[in-house]
Specification:
Blueprint (H helix, E strand, L loop, with lengths): L1 H15 L8 E13 L7 E14 L2 E14 L3 E4 L2 E4 L10 E6 L2 E11 L5 E11 L14 E13 L2 E11 L11 E13 L2 E10 L9 E11 L4 E10 L7 E10 L1
Antiparallel strand pairs: 1-2, 1-15, 2-3, 3-6, 3-7, 4-5, 7-8, 8-9, 9-10, 10-11, 11-12, 12-13, 13-14, 14-15
Length: 260
């Protein structure tokens, strides 16, 4: 299965490359993301996650690399997996809360459009994903192992200005020494509502299966407001509410992106 997913990811990348000659462009973006929760433990974990993403657009897909900075309170029970805080075990390094900071795991993601037939039909894309273990696992900032996944992303315009979004992903979680993590299934269901020409609202429900036995699946709902400014930049802000112990209880984000 691991070889299969690697092949899928590389295939998506190679399929997108020929499109570069037909007119590709770039986007740079960053955001500040804060979340807090107990995740079924007795101690609250507060996280500040700041990703920097460079994306290349092609005619039939895109490829992006994300380098994040991370600061979080830590007892050794919660770590970042694919940019999300998750319970990875009941045994922490300490019952006392300390703060750790550093570079997080680098994320590489590509997508390839399988079908795009205009507003009255639907859009379908295949996605591939790699998490490179650049975070320091000894400080609770990552697992120290490679993760890899693939999925499908579906969108259909229900009526002008309102689009249905359905995404599904399967991720193979790398196992560090002494751990046996479960692979993860992620499902998203939401809508994108265009409020006017420059303003769009996205509402999304997401569920992620737990990677550690005995912990609860993550379930959360989030909203994101995106504004396209006259200078070509996009500015956005979002809120997140956890619906289970596997998710943060609350989170918010603010950020921007510039396409060039």
């Amino acid at each position: 299965m691991k070889t299969f997913l690697k092949t899928c990811f590389l295939g998506l990348f190679c399929a997108a490359l020929p499109a570069a000659a037909r007119g590709a462009d770039w986007k740079f973006g960053s955001s500040i993301n804060y979340d807090t929760g107990k995740y079924g433990t007795a101690v609250r974990t507060n996280s500040l996650y700041i990703p920097f993403t460079l994306k290349r657009y092609y005619r039939e897909g895109d490829l992006s690399v994300t380098l994040p900075l991370l600061r979080q309170s830590a007892t050794g029970q919660i770590t970042r997996v694919g940019g999300r805080p998750m319970l990875v075990g009941g045994g922490g390094r300490s019952v006392e809360t300390s703060y750790e900071s550093g570079v997080g795991d680098i994320l590489v993601r590509g997508s390839y459009i399988l079908k795009r037939d205009g507003p009255r039909s639907y859009d379908l894309a295949a996605a591939g994903y790699l998490k490179l273990p650049t975070a320091d696992e000894s400080r609770g900032l990552g697992t120290g192992e490679l993760d890899e996944g693939a999925g499908l992303e579906f969108g259909k315009e229900l009526r002008p200005g309102l689009t249905l979004l359905v995404n599904g992903y399967y991720t193979i979680i790398g196992d560090p020494d002494g751990a046996d993590y479960n692979n993860q299934v992620t499902l998203d269901l939401g809508v994108l509502r265009r409020l006017d020409e420059d303003l769009a609202l996205t509402l999304l429900y997401e569920t992620r299966s737990a990677i550690a036995d005995g912990s609860e699946d993550a379930r959360e709902i989030g909203g994101n407001l995106d504004y396209a400014a006259e200078d070509g930049n996009h500015y956005f802000g979002g809120l997140l509410l956890g619906l289970s112990e596997g998710s943060p209880q609350f989170g918010f984000s603010v950020g921007f992106s510039h396409r060039f």
